[in-house]
Every structure is written in structure tokens, then in C-alpha cells.
Amino acid sequence: MNQAGHEVTVFERADRIGGLLRYGIPDFKLEKQLVQRRVDLMTDEGIRFVVNEAIGSPSSSVDLEAYDAVVLCTGATRPRDLDVKGRSLQGIHFAHDFLSRQNKATEKSGSANQDDTWSAHGKQVIVIGGGDTGSDCVGTANRQGAACVTQFELASVPPLSRSAEQPWPWMPLVMKTSSSQEEGADRHWSIMTTAFEGNTGVSHLVTQRVTRAENGSFIPVPESEKRWPADMVLLAIGYTGPESALAEALDLDLDNRGCIATNDTFMTSREGFFCGGDARRGQSLVVWAIAEGRDVAAEVHAWLGGAGNLPRRGYGDLPTL
How high does pLDDT run on average in the chain? Predict the structure, then answer.
């Protein structure tokens, strides 16, 4: 939009620009100098970045009505929790909180986070969740000097090769091992966490093995309970959608998944307010955020009466979560 002649201001509640790329993805997967280089290029092109500005909060004095169009790209940052006995014990953290603190510490000092509350150094770490975020937790915990890292996944062990039910170009559900897991992780599948144990801090985690019913639900296996020693537990079990404060402050409609509802031009229920990325789709990938950013820019440009058409990718149906 900036290159098309619009004046663009970006508001960010964190202290630096970059969002998930800067504070969610570990430095060993994405060096932050690459993120900063892109931010510097956009700044030089005339884009205005304003940090430490939480739009929609009582502390913000920004008047969005002063702008011709507003685009919400706030992500799906509401983490999925685990409602089991002992959840309030110390040492049990959401993965994003753990990873963002590590990234901030690395940017500030160039070294790993040594805050004992959040550091995995010398601890028996259990990561709950087998996706990309869980893998990032494994790699970060290992780099912080964890005594051992164990990773649980609720689903069963995936097959080693693509099945006939998943022909190309569908993404196959196959066994994957990330570089972080290769560095050291004791992986277990079909494991459900049923409780945490400890005094003030977590000391053990209780699990049961599960099987999958035809309707997709998980059925506990009788007499399969097991206790695992744990000094730190990281919850990497996904996100449930965008945080609600901004949508409530702007009185925006939500869809049945709790994401900000839009029409086929990315406009929300409020005229002139658009939305794209995870805040609209639910948790997804960086490539989808980039693609939707281009599409939203094209729609806003057209709505503002801009000359010509901005390049866009075109998008398909919303994912079924």
C-alpha cells in the first residue's frame, strides 16, 4: 500500500516490530537481524512504525477514526490451556510466553535467558504438543541446558509414508522429525495429561495412554496411568483465536470459531475496518499471513478508490479447525 502511494502507519503493542517472527520463532530458526533488515527497509520507504501502543486498551489514546482505513493483523495469540488438576502450580508455562522471553533475552544480551523461573537450565522439561511450536520449545530448552526434554503428543504415531487417502497435492500426515527433535527429545504419542503434582512448583506430571474412537474422540486406556518427573512443563497445544479485547473495543462481529468475521473483501462488520491473517483465519502459517497481507492491501486500495490493481494472491475457503 505504501508503494501504491498510501500513507501507512503500523501500531504494535510490543517494544519492537516483527510479531511472531521476532518474538515467537526462535533465533536458531530465524535470525532476528533478517527481520530487522526488512523493518529498516520499510522504514526507509516511508512506513511509520509506532511501538508500545496497545490499540483498544484503556492506555491507548489513538483515534482510529482519524484514518481512512484500518487493517487488523493482530494474530491468534490466545493460547489453548489444559484444565487439569494442579494447573496452577509454578513451572507450568504457555509455550509462547517461554519462547518470547527467550527471544527478548537473546536480543538484549546475545545469550540465553538465565532467569531461573523461565530457564530450562538443569531441569527435567516436558513439552506437551508435537507441532512446530512444541519443536521450538524442545530446541530452546536444549539450548538453555535442560537436563532432559520429553515431548508428548495426543495423536497416535503417524505413518512413515503418504497414504492413498492423501494424494498429492494434499499435505500428507506423515512422521516428521525436526532438527530440534534430532538434537534431543524423548518423544511419546497417544499420551493424555491428566494431572500435575507438586507443592508450590510442579514436580510430576500424570498421564494416561489413549486410543482414538471412530468419532475422533480420545478414549483413555485402562490401567495405563504413569507419573513423570518434571521441573518445567511447556504447553504447546495451539491457540484458540485472537484475543477478544480489541474486537470488543471496536464492536466487531466474530465468527463461530471466535475469529474476527469478514466478508469476501476482508472487511469486518464495521465499515472501513479490515482484517487478515490469523486474526481472521485462526492459527496458521507465516506464508498465509504474507499472502493475506497482500490480498488485504489490494482490497483496501480498491475500496479507497486507488488507481489500478495491486497484486494479490487470491484466497480459498477458510480452514476447518
Answer: 92
User: Among positive and negative, which fits the CA dihedral 79, 83, 88, 89?
Assistant: negative
pLDDT at 319 over 50: no
Output the pLDDT for position 115. 66
Q: Strands 202-212 and 186-189, how do they pair?
A: unpaired
Q: Are 257 and 251 in contact (CB under 8 A)?
A: no
- For range 15-34, the mean pLDDT: 93
Q: Is pLDDT above 90 for 320?
A: no
134 pLDDT more than 90:
yes
Q: Is the pTM of this model over 0.85?
A: yes
**One-letter amino acid of 309:** N
